[in-house]
């Protein structure tokens, strides 16, 4: 560990010791879980900066007035899992006109709440236990313990059932009722430090006549002297809608402003159901309200029959799978059954890393992937699935996870060799260790892809093996994309795929008109990719049609418009027939993915060139150092 990191860690350990006063606060002040969820999963706080001088207040009790911005636990939720309930229209205390937003506080100066205090994760055994959804929307599920099982029914009597290994049990939903959800449209997301960006966005949307508010998600806590801080601020339309009405609002914002949005959902009334437990003969042996917990004290785990995977994809299917850890059988938002695997983080990684990288890759690349995946999981906790009874899902939306069924000896060895390790910046904070499949020879700055302030650990840089100066850079994108034999790590890797390093994709004019119809510009006449980052990836697409013009912002939004382009490191040109009539569009590009952080195929190339995993990660994350989290 470098001296700056060691010094920062010492300071952080002192800060964590201050959290004893936080941990001793009355239990009534701690966040509480909903009836359908695990222990509280995140901190969610509404924080709306004050109106500036002369700015008119929003409707109701002044939606532009701030609630106090605090770090830590929200108030008790009225059934919402992982999200504080939205305040009533009169629920904000308005400050004096012209009050500035409170300064951003350094959590280190406040004393970091301990994991046991925040209860966002279960840290028994010295590492976090993560609730991961295996499947949901089921009427019944069949499973078998691989060792002696204890099944807990909950309730005031805490009824339990003990069963032998290999016995088969079926849980069936009866009398189910879905949760009542509300939704706000999410316009943008900002890093906590980007106060200026948030304020500018708030003012811009208010000038357009839209009432907006900011809400903080995520958490900050200390583990063994390290700071885990994944908080971020989301910019939301202030209007609370039904999910259906919110979908219509999204379409309206896309037509009027060309902005792609997402939904921020909250639970108003929790889902409910009775869960019946049946033995192999089909006899009901017990019932529970909303949730059952199954564990094997010896850690043998469970076999789960017909696990559904790939929902919404062409590879959708069902597979019998085996899992480490415990199971929770809980009621999902639809009033049906969800199966949740509560698994130690290291065991989660054993079933996750093989799905993220080739298990036959060089061992040093596998170690690099294990470290980045560990940081990625911690970065997502409390950010996704806020209205669901789990923290993460096992699909592409979070991270593909097949449990013990998907494990490979090589990736398991990499996880064990790097146990508890994460990447830390010079100030001792956990790096958001993102990664993509193929960078195309140059990684990208985080702010180009996702907006917000530049992250010193996520700076784009050439990813070539050998001297950089002898080769063109993406500033001359046409030359960059056509340079032969570029010694990029992701091209030299034995796992390189030429069609992902450099690629072409054609669309007919009719296909583009159909895909971009929602933008309301009519028949598309011109496309232009601009606001490029250091890798040549574009952040803005300008679309001109016979009925007007608009812009689409955001690297992912651009790619989604065209059925997930490999990347936005691309140039686009119109194709015309002999008479000059527009017939189609040709995209020529490089890379596969957003390009920020570690290039997975490039990491393999670097490992094959003799680099250790610490060196690989130091390259991709601008000098960040590997250090233990726990």
UniProtKB/TrEMBL annotation:
<dbReference type="GO" id="GO:0030435">
    <property type="term" value="P:sporulation resulting in formation of a cellular spore"/>
</dbReference>
<feature type="compositionally biased region" description="Basic and acidic residues">
    <location>
        <begin position="117"/>
        <end position="126"/>
    </location>
</feature>
<feature type="signal peptide">
    <location>
        <begin position="1"/>
        <end position="27"/>
    </location>
</feature>
<feature type="domain" description="Sporulation stage II protein D amidase enhancer LytB N-terminal">
    <location>
        <begin position="334"/>
        <end position="423"/>
    </location>
</feature>
<protein>
    <submittedName>
        <fullName>SpoIID/LytB domain protein</fullName>
    </submittedName>
</protein>
<dbReference type="Pfam" id="PF08486">
    <property type="entry name" value="SpoIID"/>
</dbReference>
<feature type="region of interest" description="Disordered">
    <location>
        <begin position="25"/>
        <end position="126"/>
    </location>
</feature>
<dbReference type="InterPro" id="IPR013486">
    <property type="entry name" value="SpoIID/LytB"/>
</dbReference>
<dbReference type="InterPro" id="IPR013693">
    <property type="entry name" value="SpoIID/LytB_N"/>
</dbReference>
<keyword id="KW-0732">Signal</keyword>
<feature type="compositionally biased region" description="Low complexity">
    <location>
        <begin position="72"/>
        <end position="89"/>
    </location>
</feature>
<feature type="compositionally biased region" description="Polar residues">
    <location>
        <begin position="41"/>
        <end position="50"/>
    </location>
</feature>
């Amino acid at each position: 560990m470098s001296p700056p990191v060691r010094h920062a860690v010492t300071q952080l350990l002192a800060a964590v010791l201050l959290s004893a006063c936080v941990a001793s606060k009355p239990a009534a002040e701690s966040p509480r879980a909903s009836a359908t969820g695990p222990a509280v999963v995140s901190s969610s706080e509404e924080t709306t900066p004050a109106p500036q001088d002369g700015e008119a207040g929003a409707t109701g009790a002044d939606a532009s007035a701030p609630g106090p911005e605090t770090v830590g636990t929200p108030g008790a939720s009225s059934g919402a899992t992982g999200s504080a309930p939205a305040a009533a229209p009169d629920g904000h205390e308005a400050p004096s006109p012209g009050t500035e937003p409170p300064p951003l506080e350094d959590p280190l100066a406040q004393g970091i709440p301990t994991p046991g205090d925040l209860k966002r994760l279960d840290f028994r055994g010295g590492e976090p236990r993560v609730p991961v959804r295996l499947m949901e929307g089921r009427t019944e599920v069949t499973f078998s313990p691989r060792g002696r099982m204890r099944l807990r029914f909950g309730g005031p009597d805490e009824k339990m059932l003990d069963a032998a290994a290999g016995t088969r049990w079926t849980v069936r939903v009866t009398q189910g009722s879905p949760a009542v959800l509300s939704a706000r449209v999410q316009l943008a997301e900002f890093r906590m430090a980007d106060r200026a960006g948030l304020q500018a966005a708030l003012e811009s949307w208010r000038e357009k006549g839209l009432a907006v508010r900011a809400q903080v998600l995520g958490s900050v806590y200390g583990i063994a002297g390290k700071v885990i801080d994944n908080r971020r601020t989301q910019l939301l339309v202030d209007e609370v809608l039904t999910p259906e009405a919110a979908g219509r609002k999204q379409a309206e914002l896309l037509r009027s402003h060309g902005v792609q949005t997402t939904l921020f959902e909250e639970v108003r009334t929790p889902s409910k159901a009775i869960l019946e437990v049946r033995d192999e003969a089909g006899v009901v042996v017990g019932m529970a309200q909303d949730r059952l917990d199954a564990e094997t004290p010896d850690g043998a785990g469970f076999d789960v029959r017909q696990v559904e995977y790939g929902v919404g994809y062409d590879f959708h299917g069902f597979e019998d799978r085996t899992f480490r850890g415990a199971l929770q059988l809980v009621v999902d938002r639809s009033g049906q059954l969800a199966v949740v695997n509560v698994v130690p983080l290291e065991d989660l990684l054993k079933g996750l890393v093989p799905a993220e990288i080739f298990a036959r890759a060089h061992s040093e690349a596998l170690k690099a992937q294990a470290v980045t995946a560990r940081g990625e999981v911690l970065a997502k906790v409390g950010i996704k699935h806020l209205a669901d009874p789990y923290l993460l899902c096992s699909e592409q939306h979070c991270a593909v996870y097949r449990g013990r069924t998907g494990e490979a000896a090589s990736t398991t060895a990499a996880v064990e060799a790097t146990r508890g390790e994460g990447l830390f910046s010079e100030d001792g904070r956990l790096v958001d260790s993102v990664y993509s499949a193929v960078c195309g020879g140059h990684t990208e700055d985080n702010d180009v892809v996702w907006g917000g302030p530049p992250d010193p650990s996520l700076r784009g840089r050439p990813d070539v093996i050998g001297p950089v100066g002898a080769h063109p850079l993406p500033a001359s994108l046409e030359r960059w994309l056509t340079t032969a034999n570029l010694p990029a790590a992701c091209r030299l890797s034995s796992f390189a795929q030429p069609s992902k390093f450099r690629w072409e994709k054609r669309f007919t004019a009719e296909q583009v008109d159909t895909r971009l119809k929602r933008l309301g510009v009519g028949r598309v006449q011109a496309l232009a990719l601009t606001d490029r980052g250091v890798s040549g990836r574009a952040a803005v697409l300008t679309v001109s049609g016979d009925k007007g013009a608009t812009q689409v912002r955001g690297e992912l939004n651009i790619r989604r418009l065209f059925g997930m382009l490999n990347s936005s490191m691309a140039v686009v040109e119109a194709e015309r027939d002999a008479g000059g009539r527009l017939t189609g569009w040709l995209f020529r590009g490089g890379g596969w993915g957003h390009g920020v952080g570690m290039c997975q195929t490039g990491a393999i190339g670097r490992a094959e060139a003799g680099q250790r995993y610490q060196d690989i990660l130091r390259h991709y994350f601008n000098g960040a150092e590997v250090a233990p989290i726990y």
